[in-house]
Amino acid sequence: MLEGILAGLATTFLPINLFLVLVGCFAGTFIGMLPGLGPISAIALMIPITYGFDPASGMILMAGVYYGAIFGGSTSSILLNAPGVAGTVATAFDGYPLAQQGKAGKALALAAYSSFAGGTIAAIFLLVAAPTLASVSLSFQSSDYFALMVLGLTAVSAFAGKGGFLKAILMTVLGLMLSTVGTDASAGIQRFTFGRVDLIDGVSFLLLAMATFALSEALMVILKRTKISKKAQQATQWNLGSLKVSRQEFKEITPTIARSSVLGFFVGVLPGAGATIASFLAYGMERNLAKDQDKAQFGKGSLKGLVAPETANNAACSGSFVPLLTLGIPGSGTTAVMLGALLSYGIQPGPRLFVEQPQVFWSVIISMYIGNIILLILNLPLIPYIAKLLMLPKQLLTPLILFFSLIGVYLVSFNPFDIQMMIFFAIAALLLRILDFPMAPMLLGFVLGGMMEENLRRALLINDGSFSFLWERPITLSILVIIVLTFLAPVVSYFKPAVPD
Amino acid sequence: MNFSRIRKAHVHKDKVGALIFLIFSVAYGVSSQDIEIPFFAEEDAFNSRTLPIALAILGGVTALLLLILPSSSSEKEASIGQAFRGLYWKEVILLLILMVVYGLTIKVVGFIVSTTLFLALGFWVLGERRIKVILLTSVPLVLIFWYILSQLLDIYIDPGSFFHFLGGV
To answer: Cβ separation of B55 and A173 shorter than 8 Å?
Structure first.
């Protein structure tokens, strides 16, 4: 293991990789700050750039983008009350009031410190948890993987919240259906190609991610005509105030940081839950723990109320890498995009990655930590200038985002049919977004679809075509029991009489 | 665009979505029957048709549940009319048309011309009227991008069939 860590360290500290973390953090911060564009779009936009890189460098860039996007989201939450990223919605609760009180600088600095602290603590957990879990999961077989993937897919729906459960399941099923288009890998039979040569290879993952996220998110901003330019103008004229945080204040928030990062990490590890849920849970926990006087401050510019979600969302980002790196199963939309990228480099994450290519495994973990440090160094002094970036004219930015999405896909295949297919998916995604259907479960279903079918088929082959392994293998059975429980939770809450909140 | 009819509709948006998914699942299920299975795989517990059929059933049943179960939010606040209210379609539709045209022309007139036009018209659609800004943003950007791709990264970019038609090599 130590050898692996050293190899990882050596890879991470190659000048080119350090440079990529820097670029990633900066690009991520910028994209994350644009309201409407989230980390999934940010990462998807980076994938075409990383095609020529070796896998470790590609992952390093994307980890930087992920963190940057979350931090950028906090910036627009605090300054504009317009969260760029769902994981930073809770940041606005207390961050925006602080900015209104002329303490925007302090709020941004605190956000940077707490993101850093959350990321650091979670990185240490990751360092311990990932190898342990990876060695355990070496004993997993096809049937267990099949069950785990089903668990990941149902959990994403179970966390969708009241009323959203069935819609999330439908979107997951849609993703699985799209994954069946093309040639069936193990039998060589064409499915749903409608006789078109362009569809023989199926729908490319990058195409789908770009169309349903980058394209449709950018178009959604235009469709809703989110007016932020006025607010942005106002924000840049604000007095940011001092960036200093006093020792007394640090003392006050230290316990909050400790609690929120532990909570955030474990929520992040859970399949289906992620930065968004972690940040809301941490905010709620701090509010419940606070004494009367502190409690009244929540929502009016409480420092704890700002620090808790900021710490938790970063910790959850690291946590969400645990299932991806150790099992090869993404638990969220963002890690699903990362998995898609890894697969396109020809790398299958999972316990074998840990054994066969430890330098990739470790360099990702280490570079995530470096990303945290760089974000702190990069963003603290740049805060006043970052705020100005919000002033960039949208009429110029949106066509550029559309162009980068289209060309990113086109340059892989040089097939104009792909552009038309993207537009088709973007329109469908736009309509589904208007009807409030969540997009992330679809992407997750699409990524897991092929692997799920393959594992199930292999399990059946080993078992002479009998489904008995589902209840005969203890690991499979226990995962199935958890699946049933996650399914039951929304059903029970559906039939429970509504309690006024 | 006349969306006034939709705006007045009082159907819950979940029901509309459920109906779309129901139709889609049925269509998916029907076309899954077109998958050709070799005779020796027909009796297998799992062949290329198994997962699609299972998905069609799962999708259909879930859509049906969403359709018939009472929704958690009231029809008024989540009606399809409410969902479509206050949206600005004009720019989005123009941008979509631009993208389609871009996809159609990129092989014909080549990367540089089609991309410059796409960006310039895109800026125009979104309300940028200063010709200077439009040109000074789109032209250099496309040229820099083309230079990075074709010269630095050595990616071959087809100059377009029109170029070849004119006699270019």
So the answer is: yes
pLDDT of residue A58: 86
Q: Can you spell out the DSSP letters for A90-131?
A: HHHHHHHHHHHTT-HHHHHHHHHHHHHHHHHHHHHHHHHHHH
Please tell me the predicted confidence (pLDDT) of residue B5: 59
What's the gap in Å between the CA of A416 and the closest CA on chain B? 5
Mutate to test the interface with A, among B21, B64, B113 (most CBs of A within 10 A): B21
Amino acid A499: pLDDT: 47
Residues A264 and A281: their CA atoms lie apart, in Å, by 8
* pLDDT on residue B139: 94
A239 touches chain B (CB under 8 A): no
**Chain B residue whose CA is closest to A409:** B103
| Domain positions in chain A | 2-494
State the DSSP code for A173: H
Say yes or no: ipTM exceeds 0.95: no
Of A117, A68, A485, nearest in space to A272 by CA? A485
| Domain boundaries, given as residue ranges, for chain B | 4-84, 89-165
Give me Rg for the CA atoms of chain A: 22
Collapsing DSSP to helix, strand or coil, A62 comes out as: helix
Q: What is the model's pTM?
A: 0.88
Question: What's the CA gap between A194 and A207, in Å, rounded?
Answer: 19
Calculate how close chain A gets to B167, using CA atoms only, in Å. 22
Which burial class, exposed, middle or buried, applies to A470 when counting CB atoms under 10 A from its CB (0-12, 13-18, 19+)? middle
User: Encoding tokens for residue A226?
Assistant: 């989110």
Comparing CA positions, the residue from A136, A129, A140, A53 lying closest to residue A347 is A53
**Which pLDDT score is estimated for B74?**
65
A63-67, A379-383, B14-18, B138-142: least confident range:
A379-383
Please answer whether residues A157 and B65 qualify as being in contact, where contact means their C-beta atoms are separated by less than 8 angstroms: no
Average pLDDT for consecutive 10-residue bins of chain A (501 residues)?
Answer: 82 87 88 84 88 82 86 85 81 90 87 89 86 83 90 82 82 95 85 88 92 93 73 63 82 92 91 84 91 85 92 90 86 86 81 79 80 80 73 83 92 90 96 92 91 90 85 89 84 61 40
- Beta-carbon contacts of A325 under 8 Å, excluding residues fewer than 6 positions away, are A130, A134, A349, A353, A354, A361, A364, A365
- Asked if A12 contacts A60 with a C-beta cutoff of 8 angstroms, the reply is yes
Alpha carbon distances (Å) from A35 to A79, A89, A229: 12, 11, 11
**What's the CA gap between A288 and A292, in Å, rounded?**
10
Instruction: Look at residue A230 in the predicted model and tell me its pLDDT.
Output: 62
Q: Which residue has the higher pLDDT, A183 or B158?
A: A183
Residues B107, A190: C-beta atoms closer than 8 Å: no
A·B CB contacts under 8 A: 162
Say which DSSP state A182 is in.
E
